Task: structure prediction
Amino acid sequence: MSVDALGTLTGASPITIRRDLAELAEHGLVRRVRGGVTRAEMRGTSLPFSVRFESDRGRKDALAAVAADLVADGESLILDSGTTCYAVARRLAGRPITALALSLHAAAALATRPGAQVVVPGGPVENDALAFTSHAAVAAVHEMNADIAIIGACSALPGHGLASTDYEDAQVKRACLAAASRRVLVTTADKLTRTSTFRFGTPAELTDLVTTTDAPEDLLVSFRVEGVEVHLVEQPVENPFTRPMP
Result:
């Protein structure tokens, strides 16, 4: 995509476009070429947590609002790591709940306002994502009798199961499914069409699925057949060239 084409598409000035393209290239989201940019090679690359959260913030906030409404005051909660679950934590801040947060991002968001009792597991913390995925995290989850667990997944294609790209992360998510009475998967629709290496569960182990309205109907039927209650979230209309506000 050339700078001139982006100018025609967005109405932005060439200097603004070049500045933004330089920032995108710095994060590895595009590759600079003469006169513009081309697709970056993302295979095997993990984007920074802040970039992943801001890149689709509108949809994640919409999903988080619905997922947070599934948690009642006074309930105990296990909240998974990841950017979508972080958005849920921001929605739950100030609510009178007891939460085991599986990332420091989520724990900090929950603890920003009085109300929630926030617990974190022991063990090492991943860089950037600040997630707990060690044996200590699995043990902490096993010690919970939670009313509800809100989890994410790298993929959730029916027939292939709920899966993660990381082995340790999959073990934590499997423990979450075993520790809670209600088990909610919160995910954008694109992950319902993917597969990943390490399976941690099946749709039948969920009680609720929160996803966006662009999810293929045949895949949603596969979840409903397993007794999963599906909550569809309208996607906010966003300008992809507008930088999200903090």
Notes: The first strand starts at residue 30 and ends at 33. The mean pLDDT is 90.
